[in-house]
Amino acid sequence: MKQIKTFEDACKVKGYNPETVLPDFSVFPEQHKKALTATSKLIIVNEAMNYVDNGNKDWTPDWTNCEEDKYYPWFDLEKAENNPSGFRLHAVRCDDAYSSVGSRLVYRTRKLAEYAAKQFESLYRDLMVLE
Question: Cα separation of 131 and 32, whole Å?
Fold first, then answer.
């Protein structure tokens, strides 16, 4: 995954122009723009990472196949002594036919989900935390 360190790297892998691929969120309320932008970027990052990990072939999770695991980062948003920022990776969850993040944000492997959570933590934070 070393080749995907940024949103722009993910766009390059999939052949998207990072300047034009994102929707125009200017009509949305200001408080939601960061989350919508982060969601859009994470979808492309996820697509590119799964693509590379799948031998440069697109991958779509098969929710009818309980034998196929799907992984996603699970974050802790509670401020505590061990989490003073109020945002950290808590765990990587694995499900087979159930997901609380939807199809667009699951990864083929635990390793991919862990990498995405750490490398793109700021995007996940923008998605999940209303500031």
Answer: 10
pTM of the predicted structure, to 2 decimals: 0.86
Q: φ and ψ at 14, to 5 degrees?
A: -95, -5
State both tokens at 89.
Answer: 């990776």
Cβ atoms 71, 110 nearer than 8 A: yes
The three-point CA angle 20-27-6 to 5° equals 35
Cα(89)–Cα(87) distance, rounded to whole angstroms? 7
Q: Where are the alpha helices (DSSP H) in 19-109?
A: 30-53
pLDDT in tens, the chain (131 residues): 778 999 999 999 999 999 999 999 999 999 999 999 999 999 999 999 999 999 999 999 988 888 888 888 887 777 777 666 666 666 665 655 555 556 788 999 999 999 999 999 999 989 988 77
